[in-house]
Amino acid sequence: MPPVFKRVLIKLSGEALAGEQGFGVQPARIHAIAGELQQVQELGVQVAIVVGGGNFFRGVAEQARDMDRVSADHMGMLATVLNAIALQDALEKRGVYTRVMSAIEMNQVAEPFIRRRAMRHLEKGRFVIFAAGTGSPYFSTDTAASLRAMEIKADVIMKATKVDGIYDADPVLVKDAKMFDQISYLDFLKRGLKVMDATAISLCRENNLPIIIFNLNRAGNIRRVLTGEKVGSLVSA
């Protein structure tokens, strides 16, 4: 089936790359994700990726409790760069041309984020991985995903998680939690749902950018979302 989107931004959590080991990057897991993403390239879809850093360091976690928030957030941003380089390596081993663009300048490691250059990479069929979040503390990588999606004029944000979609309660803790096939931005914010932070949702709401939240652990789900199958939960107006 042909894809229903031309340009997408995929948000990957750092934990997705850690697999079952819970910390760092698990080679088997990152290569499996790279394989799924390679299928997307075969569809001819332009792909940008924002990757989190929670598998190494999270600015709001217990390990950062006694730290200054700005210092902790900067460490979190650097963790996302580690993940971006690991993902770039896994993709390029499969012949997928990839560029890492960082919101914090580190010219020996990654290109600086320049919007027009990012769009040119996408037009040439390269994957672009946005690292270091927004480059500013106090903003999550979810917010960075919303911001970058807006800047590159993506058709949709695809947020990959470890559950099937958005539930009214934590499905791990509550057995009969109800999943939403579709939910409005406003309803999402009113319910205080935690699957994506409020700043990111508000930004998407203002710019009418849809978000699809789906399970990354089910093989083939990225491709299914792109070809228009009913997968996960849609957040829209």
List the SSEs and their pairings.
Layout: E1 7-12, H1 14-18, H2 27-43, E2 46-51, H3 69-92, E3 98-102, E4 111-112, H4 115-123, E5 127-131, H5 141-151, E6 156-161, E7 166-167, E8 179-180, E9 182-184, H6 185-191, H7 198-207, E10 211-215, H8 221-226, E11 233-236
Parallel strand pairs: 1-2, 1-6, 2-5, 3-4, 3-5, 6-10, 9-11
Antiparallel strand pairs: 7-8, 10-11
Helix pairs in contact: 2-3, 5-7, 6-7
Keywords:
237 residues, alpha/beta, Carbamate kinase, 9-stranded mixed sheet, two-stranded antiparallel ribbon, 8 helices, 11 strands, 19% strand
Molecular structure report:
- The chain has 237 residues and is α/β, with parallel strands linked by helices.
- It has a single domain (7-236), classed as Acetylglutamate kinase-like (Carbamate kinase).
- It is 38% helix and 19% strand.
- The protein has 8 helices and 11 strands.
- It has helices at 14-18, 27-43, 69-92, 115-123, 141-151, 185-191, 198-207, 221-226; strands at 7-12, 46-51, 98-102, 111-112, 127-131, 156-161, 166-167, 179-180, 182-184, 211-215, 233-236.
- It has a 9-stranded mixed sheet with strand order 4-3-5-2-1-6-10-11-9, with helices on both faces. A two-stranded antiparallel sheet has the order 7-8.
- The longest helix is centred in the middle third of the chain and has 24 residues, at 69-92.
- It is globular, with a radius of gyration of 17 Å.
Compact description:
It contains eight helices and eleven strands.
Please tell me how large the radius of gyration is: 17 Å
Number of individual domains: 1
Q: Could you tell me how far the N terminus lies from the C terminus, measured between alpha carbons in angstroms?
A: 26 Å
Percentage of β-strand residues: 15-25%
CATH architecture: 3-Layer(aba) Sandwich
* CATH topology-level fold name: Carbamate kinase
Poorly predicted regions are none
Structure classification: alpha/beta
Mean pLDDT across the residues is: 95
Overall geometric form: globular
Across the major sheet, the strand order is 4-3-5-2-1-6-10-11-9
Order of helices and strands: EHHEHEEHEHEEEEHHEHE
Number of contiguous helices: 8
| Name of the top-level CATH class | Alpha Beta
Number of strands: 11
What name goes with the CATH superfamily?
Acetylglutamate kinase-like
- Helix % is 25-40%
